[in-house]
User: Which sequence fits this backbone?
């Protein structure tokens, strides 16, 4: 027997083949799609005013009798329709519509109607542009539709045409919609069953009813996601076993002695949590978030060395060769006097070097390996892998953790990022991980002074940079492109390098670094910069993470308006890594209001967590941290930024639900179980639930 939810909308009265194409543009093919095309907002038309109490710019409703209707063509070819209504005292309100002359066909002289909209005072009367019109032909309809849903529409389809078609669909199939929210959670959160909520969302009697019904479907969507994350968490914690890696006092003392500095309180807190995780036979699944320059690498090295001290191998995986080599340099500095056997595995090794390194890993003669994605390619085997640290996880594909798992029998995992994550993303994308945060900068580390300038200030910036370079400091000039582009009028690194070398920085040692260079050329340039053989490095986003040159204290970012807030924050984090305060200059051309807000924000604060929230607010989440691959970008109802509160209590309920029924075996959980597997089974690598 066919399910009416799957019936085509084409066969509803008022649709037909031609209008079905309009519905198709909205992603609506079936009755299920139509019923779940929820209002994006509501107009509350219950604020009824007399014509002498109208208020400019506020949504309100006024009633009167149609006394005048006039349409005319404008010189531009557009049409304007004016309809005037009057009350019993002769006071008037004018409604105006542009290019919508069909409105006049729905009304007649002498008819009582209600206009709803935001009035403005025009010459000597109130005027409402494009008011919502409701005929008041009988006493019964005087209060009808006081709350009007606002839908996403397409050209050729109006809201007043859509609502009767939705009513048909609800009458036919609403009772067939499965309810994914268990009855106990519905009662806890004050939600109606799914069929009733559909009616309340599309035809609410009051604004609160419509908003609650819409929240109910947002909650349901978030609940499915959070149950999936809770199941993934359980899959790792309850069903897999890792080797306990215990930190004795002797190990702790020995590891700390390798650092040429004292760890901050934030670093110590993160290490304490990691020590507890590693000592368990359940695989650690921890996210380490750190602000730029706050010292996450030292915490990662601590964890890696605890694994090695427990006679296990450890691996650190970075998304780029530049970052992998930076980690290698840092670890080499820490372990200069250590007997830890270590190696660097990247794609630039020769076949013979790679074979030898892989043989040593398999034999267990290498304790610690740093590498790129080469670590998860065919042929890589470990003798006794105990810990994997994944740096900048969001720069990897969504299935990287699964591929890493094949390297050994359930190692512990530490995922870390120096890009602070908005709380919504942390809950929605990394919700299966425990979280540690490092905000504190190491003692003596100076915040970067950031200034935003127009093109006219360029020469003054160059003069300041030359002063600093003459004092023995080093600097960066960051460009958005590698080479010139006909499509974009922006400064390119290769062209700018040639200009600066022969012009503003003639006599200084200027280098060029970008992602298209051969690996050995990149390594050579970066090493020359570290060794102070270069004064100024003209570069691209290739230095966004991991580059650590304490003597570099000045940066100029060209076309700063083209970078996101998190990118700008990461870039300026390459300077001020020593005891001298860095100076970052942002040069921007003609920019949008949003770009101005970004540049003001980056100049105002050095707190990466504040900037992460601001960045998400300004540009939306988009594909932030792989949300698209994760499936979060496909949310139909919820908005991770607007609906954080709903997300948080969906997470709370999901954790409790999975703790009580880990296999989702209870009869009331079957619909939820099926939805979790259908939506997230593949992207979250969930085993068959239960």
Assistant:
């Amino acid at each position: 027997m066919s399910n009416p939810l799957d019936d085509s909308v084409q066969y509803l009265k008022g649709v037909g083949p031609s209008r079905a194409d309009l519905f198709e543009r909205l992603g609506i093919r079936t009755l299920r799609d139509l019923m779940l095309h929820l209002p994006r907002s509501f107009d509350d038309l219950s604020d009824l005013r007399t014509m002498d109490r109208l208020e400019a710019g506020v949504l309100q409703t006024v009633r009167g009798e149609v006394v005048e209707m006039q349409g005319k063509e404008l010189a531009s070819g557009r049409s304007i329709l004016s309809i005037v209504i009057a009350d019993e005292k002769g006071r008037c309100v004018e409604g105006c519509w542009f290019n919508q002359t069909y409105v006049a066909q729905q009304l007649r002289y002498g008819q009582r109607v209600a206009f709803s909209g935001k009035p403005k005072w025009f010459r000597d009367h109130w005027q409402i542009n494009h008011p919502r019109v409701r005929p008041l032909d009988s006493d019964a309809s005087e209060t009808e539709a006081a709350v009007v849903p606002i839908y996403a529409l397409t050209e050729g389809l109006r809201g007043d045409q859509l609502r009767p078609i939705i009513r048909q669909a609800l009458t036919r199939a609403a009772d067939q919609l499965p309810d994914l929210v268990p009855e106990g959670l519905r009662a806890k959160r004050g939600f109606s069953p799914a069929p009733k909520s559909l009616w309340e969302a599309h035809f609410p009697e009051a604004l609160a009813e419509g908003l609650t019904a819409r929240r109910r479907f947002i909650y349901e969507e978030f609940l499915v996601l959070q149950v999936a994350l809770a199941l993934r968490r359980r899959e790792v914690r309850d069903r897999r076993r890792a080797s306990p890696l215990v930190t004795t006092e002797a190990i702790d003392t020995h590891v700390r002695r390798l650092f040429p500095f004292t760890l901050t309180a934030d670093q110590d807190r993160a290490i304490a949590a990691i020590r507890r995780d590693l000592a368990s036979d359940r695989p650690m699944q921890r996210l380490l978030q750190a602000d730029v320059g706050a010292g996450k690498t030292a915490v990662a090295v601590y964890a890696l060395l605890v694994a090695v001290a427990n006679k296990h191998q450890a691996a650190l995986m970075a998304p780029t060769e530049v970052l992998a080599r930076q980690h290698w340099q840092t670890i080499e500095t820490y372990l200069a006097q250590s007997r830890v056997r270590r190696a660097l595995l990247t794609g630039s090794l020769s076949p013979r070097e790679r074979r030898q390194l892989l043989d040593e890993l398999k034999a267990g003669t290498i304790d610690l390996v740093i590498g790129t994605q080469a670590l998860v390619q065919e042929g890589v085997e470990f003798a006794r892998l105990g810990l994997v640290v994944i740096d900048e996880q969001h720069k990897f594909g969504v299935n990287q953790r699964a591929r890493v798992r094949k390297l050994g029998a359930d190692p512990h995992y530490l995922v870390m990022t120096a890009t602070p994550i908005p709380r919504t993303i942390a809950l929605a994308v990394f919700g299966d991980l425990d979280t540690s945060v490092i905000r504190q900068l190491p003692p003596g580390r100076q915040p970067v002074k950031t200034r935003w300038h127009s093109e006219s200030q360029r020469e003054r910036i160059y003069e300041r940079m030359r002063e600093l370079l003459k004092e023995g400091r080093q600097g960066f000039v960051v460009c958005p492109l590698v080479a010139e582009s006909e499509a974009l009028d922006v400064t390119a690194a290769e062209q700018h390098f040639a200009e600066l070398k022969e012009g503003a920085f003639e006599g200084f040692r200027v280098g060029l670094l970008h992602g298209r260079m051969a690996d050995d050329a990149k390594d050579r340039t970066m090493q020359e910069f570290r060794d102070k053989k270069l004064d100024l490095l003209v570069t691209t986003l290739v230095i966004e993470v991991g580059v650590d040159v304490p003597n570099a204290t000045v940066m100029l970012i060209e076309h700063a308006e083209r970078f996101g807030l998190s990118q700008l924050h990461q870039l300026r984090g390459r300077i001020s890594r020593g005891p001298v305060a860095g100076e970052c200059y942002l040069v921007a051309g003609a920019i949008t209001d949003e770009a101005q807000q970004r540049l003001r924000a980056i100049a105002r604060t050095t707190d990466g967590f504040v900037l992460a929230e601001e960045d998400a607010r300004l540009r939306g989440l988009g594909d932030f941290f792989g949300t698209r691959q994760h499936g979060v970008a496909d949310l139909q109802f919820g908005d991770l930024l607007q609906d954080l509160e709903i997300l948080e209590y969906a997470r709370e309920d999901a954790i409790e639900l999975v703790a009580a029924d880990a296999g989702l075996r209870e009869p009331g959980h079957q619909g939820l179980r099926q939805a979790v597997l259908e939506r997230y089974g593949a992207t979250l690598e969930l085993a068959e639930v239960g």
